[in-house]
């Protein structure tokens, strides 16, 4: 269902900020409807590897959402049309709600006693350096340009391309769907499954807006600008996706190969998702560059992993 919705947003040339805002009204949801502590017994009983994988992914997602809830405001204020401004105002609500969901869920199932703000800081300390760099350095730099000069349209289009199309479309949605699939197979965390479905639906709207904004940029003579911005952002996103700081299981060869296949599929899915969105925005001519930059970024991140841990990355088992 979510995959179908996302493709409709990406491929529909009639998608506009107005239509996305109306979808937001129809698809609104509340964290208060989710009894997050109900998942706690099943969460505490998860197998160690699955627990570690889910916990790490949810922490990274929480950190990203908290950062964006703080950084999105300049993009709302500087939007080039009133309709885009109205839509982005609804997205600001989404980002805050996602932050509350992820932080609230983790606090509930982990039995955390510190207040939400303190727990958010703990999550940030546990997140990978690559995630912190993407959201608290690179994206911050993009939105700060807009804040300093709201009339700088180039800065606005660059920031939206960075966040909505590359970070959300090629990273957040792929990670969310991977987590949702793991939760589905687990079959024991219904509250998390419902919350993830809601977040994925929201993120699909966000990506749809990003594709609209890129088309708008292309139609207004900014093809080179947004194309270059996609290429510039790819290494940051790939570094988060590969996650060289996280040690993968390296005991049995069959486990290593299975992990390698899982990661190869995830990385290819993310790259292909970005390629679809670039094409939908009218930038077919940068396909080859996107693929080349993506592969080079993967290789650097994998080499970083091997330097850190002194073992081949599981992806090498597929060679």
UniProtKB/TrEMBL annotation:
Q: Which InterPro entries match?
A: Ferritin-like_SF, RNR-like
Top-level taxon:
Bacteria
Q: What is this protein called?
A: Uncharacterized protein
């Amino acid at each position: 269902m979510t995959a179908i919705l996302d493709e409709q947003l990406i491929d529909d040339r009639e998608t506009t900020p107005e239509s996305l805002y109306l979808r937001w009204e129809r698809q609104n949801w509340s964290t208060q409807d989710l009894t997050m502590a109900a998942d706690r017994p099943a969460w505490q009983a998860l197998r160690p590897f699955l627990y570690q994988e889910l916990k790490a992914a949810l922490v990274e997602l929480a950190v990203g959402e908290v950062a964006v809830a703080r950084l999105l405001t300049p993009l709302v204020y500087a939007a080039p049309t009133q309709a885009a401004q109205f839509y982005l105002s609804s997205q600001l609500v989404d980002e805050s709600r996602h932050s509350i969901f992820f932080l609230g869920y983790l606090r509930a199932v982990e039995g955390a006693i510190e207040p939400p703000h303190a727990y958010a800081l703990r999550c940030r300390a546990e997140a990978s350096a690559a995630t912190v760099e993407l959201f608290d350095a690179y994206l911050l730099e993009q939105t700060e340009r807009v804040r300093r000069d709201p009339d700088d349209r180039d800065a606005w289009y660059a920031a939206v391309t960075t966040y909505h199309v590359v970070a959300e479309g090629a990273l957040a949605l792929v990670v969310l769907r991977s987590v949702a699939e793991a939760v589905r197979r687990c079959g024991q965390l219904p509250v998390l499954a419902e919350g993830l479905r809601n977040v994925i639906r929201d993120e699909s709207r966000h990506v749809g807006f990003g594709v609209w904004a890129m088309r708008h940029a292309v139609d207004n003579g900014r093809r080179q600008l947004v194309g270059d911005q996609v290429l510039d952002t790819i290494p940051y996103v790939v570094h988060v996706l590969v996650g060289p700081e996280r040690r993968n299981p390296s005991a049995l060869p069959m486990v290593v190969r299975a992990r390698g296949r899982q990661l190869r599929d995830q990385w290819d899915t993310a790259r292909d998702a970005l390629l679809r969105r670039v094409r939908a925005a009218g930038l077919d001519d940068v396909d080859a560059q996107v693929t080349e930059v993506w592969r080079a970024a993967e290789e650097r991140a994998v080499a970083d992993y091997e330097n850190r841990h002194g073992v081949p990355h599981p992806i090498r088992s597929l060679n």
